[in-house]
């Protein structure tokens, strides 16, 4: 009985707050002459702060515009203007601002679907395209060391667990391979340096003389490719949870794309490498602890509405006062 009463009170409180909120919005509109969408667009600068407020407002409205198809955004804007009784001739900038926000909102949703599709697609050694990408990864990371055979212990040199990398992609499917290839192909110098450092991360900060003087028993490294797949999982979780909205809404002036996601992966790989060295783990068994600590740090950074994780990739300079 007590449980039923508690549920009843919670339901009543929910509808009370909802009605109170609608009444408050009505009063504010009468006082300002502007609907909530107008107030957000006119008082909040473009980027994550504005887009996330617009998204929250649209989710709480009667119209279901969040699930609109990208090709129907312009018509959706017209419908919103009509529903809110806003004259587009008097408020031309509002339509432009709403369109930019909707492109980001719908684009983020579509990016999740695209990433999920890659994650669910398993690596197929019978697929020539999959094999070509895998071989490209080797060539980018080890250009001066030809691969002697497709099945080879050489794969361990770039951080796979055995002589056939296909078994290591099970957790993240093709998404893990896509990210590693992008990192190796488009950020080659850093990727090669991270690979080298991952073998002896402590040594990378010391001269040979200093290294020999300190006589370290062992440099705590990690498996580059395996960690890359693990960081892909981290980036995937940030995306699906919505945490990456802050970043993407700040760096993508329109719809965030798979390239934005891959650039973010490159940033996370580089930052995790530095974080691993700073943490100075006793052995590889501390990997999960270090990863979790790194994940929480990234989450804290993304709570800042002005955060852009990788400004060197940012398109924020392209953001105009929309």
From TrEMBL:
InterPro entries to which the protein is assigned, alphabetical: ELMO_dom (IPR006816), ELMO_domain-containing (IPR050868)
GO molecular function: GTPase activator activity
Record-annotated ELMO domain positions: 129-302
Pfam families: ELMO_CED12
Tree of life domain: Eukaryota
Descriptive protein name: ELMO domain containing 1
Organism: Taeniopygia guttata
């Amino acid at each position: 009985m007590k449980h039923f009463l508690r549920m009843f009170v919670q339901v009543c409180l929910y509808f009370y707050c909802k009605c109170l909120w609608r009444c408050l919005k009505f009063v504010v509109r009468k006082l300002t002459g502007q609907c909530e969408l107008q107030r957000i667009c006119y008082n909040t600068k473009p980027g994550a702060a504005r887009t996330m407020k617009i998204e929250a407002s649209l989710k709480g409205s009667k119209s279901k515009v969040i699930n609109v198809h990208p090709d129907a955004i312009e018509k959706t804007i017209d419908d919103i203007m009509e529903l809110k009784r806003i004259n587009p001739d008097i408020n031309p900038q509002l339509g432009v601002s709403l369109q930019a926000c909707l492109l980001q909102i719908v684009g983020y949703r579509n990016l999740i679907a695209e990433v999920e599709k890659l994650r669910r697609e398993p690596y197929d050694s019978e697929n020539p395209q999959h094999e070509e990408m895998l071989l490209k990864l080797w060539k980018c990371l080890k250009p001066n060391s030809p691969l002697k055979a497709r099945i080879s212990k050489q794969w361990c040199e770039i951080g796979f667990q055995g002589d056939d990398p296909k078994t290591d992609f099970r957790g993240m499917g093709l998404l893990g391979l896509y990210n590693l290839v992008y990192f190796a192909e488009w950020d080659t110098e850093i990727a090669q340096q991270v690979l080298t450092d991952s073998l002896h991360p402590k040594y990378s900060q010391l001269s040979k003389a200093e290294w020999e003087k300190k006589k370290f028993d062992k440099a705590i490294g990690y498996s580059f490719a395996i960690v890359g797949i693990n960081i892909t999982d981290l980036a995937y979780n940030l995306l699906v949870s919505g945490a990456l909205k802050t970043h993407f809404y700040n760096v993508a002036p329109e719809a965030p794309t798979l390239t934005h996601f891959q650039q973010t992966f490159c940033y996370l790989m580089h930052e995790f490498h530095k974080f691993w060295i700073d943490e100075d783990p006793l052995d590889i068994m501390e990997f999960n602890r270090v990863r979790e600590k790194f994940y929480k740090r990234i989450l804290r950074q993304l709570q800042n509405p002005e955060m852009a994780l990788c400004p060197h990739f940012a398109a924020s300079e392209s953001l105009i006062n929309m």
